[in-house]
Amino acid sequence: MIRVLLADDQLLVRAGFRALLDAQGDIEVVGEAADGEEALGLVRRLRPDIVLMDIRMPRLDGLATTRRITSEPDLAAVRVVMLTTFELDEYVFEAIRAGASGFLVKDTEPEELLRAVRAVVDGDALLSPGVTRRLIAEFAARSKEPAAADTLAELTEREREVMALVGIGLSNEEIARRLVVSPLTAKTHVSRAMVKLGARDRAQLVVLAYESGLVRPGWLG
Question: 2 and 50 in contact (C-beta within 8 Å)?
Fold first, then answer.
């Protein structure tokens, strides 16, 4: 059972998400919060698998709440998915940097929301390829010159290659076609790179690809 916490200051939004999610046999809404402070308290107490977190909330906004959650070792298993009104919300970039696993537009299709919730539990990306590439382009535009570091020293050459492809926004299926391997093999390489680098999820792997200098601005295909 996938345990979900809803954090949004709009009651109708929470009610709509709850009705959809609770109707699924494998998903359960374990709590609701109307602001970031309440959400943080519930996350610490309930330890949900996923938090659907609105970016703009009173008392403590979604971005600050996400930073708190991702900074606490005891909450390492909790995944945060940001909710936003617009795909290009100005805070989405910072949310990924803060440790969010991705983001969803509030008016997304019900099937897409359900697919996304299930995907994040499996450690997959919660961003469509188009949105991922826009996010990466934004990261590239803002990123500083990477510092020389041996953060990738533990990776094999193939894992570096796969990580670079993740960094330019390719899905596991696209990576598999590029390297002429099976999607399962591609996913395994991605997972191993995440474990070795301590990345919470695929979104953070993208950030690390840029910060380490493995991928540079202008490499988008």
Answer: yes
Name the residue among 104, 120, 109 with its Cα closest to residue 4.
120
Confidence of residue 131 (pLDDT cuts 50, 70, 90): low
- At residue 208, what are phi and psi to the nearest 5 degrees? -65, -35
Please tell me the distance from the alpha carbon of residue 31 to that of residue 13, in angstroms, as a whole number: 14
Angle at 185 between CA 173 and CA 130, to 5 degrees: 25
Residue 132: which of 79, 85, 170 has the closest Cα?
Answer: 170
161 pLDDT tier (thresholds 50, 70, 90): very high
Q: Helix, strand, or coil here: 146? A: coil
pLDDT tens string 178-195: 999 999 999 999 999 999
- The answer to whether 80 touches 70, Cβ cutoff 8 Å, is yes
Which pLDDT score, from 0 to 100, does residue 92 have?
A: 65
